[in-house]
């Protein structure tokens, strides 16, 4: 190990604090955390970074094409597609059962050709998100292009969703998007185990 690298590691270790944390098998129970005020002062990182143990690791399968998990699923209807104001994205309004805008979908290129207004779209939840919209123009958010009367407080809370279509027992991504959190909460949903290819 070079002298400069050794000295850098010693300096880094001296500037860290130790915490006893619950841990997964194979990881130290006395992990060191370090704050990085240079670029993200509110974040903490594990140090040293856990490395792969070649003796204990199983070989990763090349081209492992599938991911699976348990998530919520619901259906919304498609609206008339449009292009975002910056011209970069093909957008599709999503509507709830009452016809009001529920969110926006960004179809994959293959999915964009077969969409018709009123089509039932199967969606699964990926994660929750929020965005500060207090200083944004009405063209900055695709949801406002779908329905300019939509009002959000300073924060727009939503669910990141994936439009899925099935090929046998495997779901494939046809698009991703956002659904307004309140609308998602009112939808009739079910939990599913899904394998995505």
Fraction in helix: 10-25%
Per DSSP E runs of 2 or more residues, the count of β-strands stands at 11
The fraction of residues assigned to DSSP E strands is 35-45%
Q: Profile the largest sheet.
A: 6 strands, antiparallel, barrel
SSE order, as H and E? HEEEEEEEHEHEEHE
Distance between the termini: 43 Å
Major beta sheet, strand line-up: 4-6-7-10-9-8
Mean pLDDT: 74
Q: Any idea what the radius of gyration is?
A: 23 Å
* Number of separate helices: 4
| Count of spatially separate domains | 2
Regions with little confidence, pLDDT below 50 for 5+ residues: 15-24
Strand-helix topology:
Elements: H1 3-14, E1 17-18, E2 32-36, E3 40-47, E4 67-78, E5 82-83, E6 90-95, E7 101-107, H2 109-112, E8 120-132, H3 142-146, E9 155-167, E10 170-180, H4 181-186, E11 190-196
Antiparallel strand pairs: 1-2, 2-3, 4-6, 4-8, 4-11, 5-6, 6-7, 7-10, 8-9, 9-10
In brief:
This protein has 197 residues and is mainly beta. It has helices at 3-14, 109-112, 142-146, 181-186; strands at residues 17-18, 32-36, 40-47, 67-78, 82-83, 90-95, 101-107, 120-132, 155-167, 170-180, 190-196.
Walkthrough of the structure:
With 197 residues, the protein is mainly beta. It has two domains: 45 residues, no CATH class; 130 residues, no CATH class. The protein is 14% helix and 44% strand. The chain contains four helices and eleven strands, in the order αβββββββαβαββαβ. The strands form two sheets. Strands 4-6-7-10-9-8 form a six-stranded antiparallel beta barrel. The longest helix has 12 residues. The chain is globular and about 60 Å long. The two termini are 43 Å apart. About 5% of the residues have low confidence.
């Amino acid at each position: 190990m070079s002298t400069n690298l050794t000295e850098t590691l010693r300096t880094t270790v001296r500037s860290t604090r130790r915490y006893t944390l619950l841990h997964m098998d194979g990881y130290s129970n006395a992990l060191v955390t370090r704050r990085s005020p240079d670029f993200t002062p509110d974040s903490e990182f594990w140090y040293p970074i856990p490395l792969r143990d070649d003796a204990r690791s199983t070989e990763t399968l090349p081209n492992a094409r599938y991911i699976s998990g348990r998530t919520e699923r619901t259906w919304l209807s498609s609206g008339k597609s449009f292009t975002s104001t910056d011209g970069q994205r093909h957008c599709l309004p999503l509507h709830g059962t009452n016809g009001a805008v529920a969110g926006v979908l960004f179809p994959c290129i293959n999915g964009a050709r077969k969409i018709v207004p009123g089509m039932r779209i199967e969606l699964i939840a990926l994660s929750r998100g929020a965005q500060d919209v207090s200083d944004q123009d009405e063209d900055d958010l695709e949801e406002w292009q779908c329905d300019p009367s939509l009002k959000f407080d300073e924060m727009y809370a939503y669910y990141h969703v994936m439009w899925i279509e099935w090929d046998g027992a495997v779901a494939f991504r046809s698009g991703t998007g956002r659904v307004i959190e309140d609308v998602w909460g009112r939808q009739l949903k079910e939990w599913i185990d899904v394998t995505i290819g």
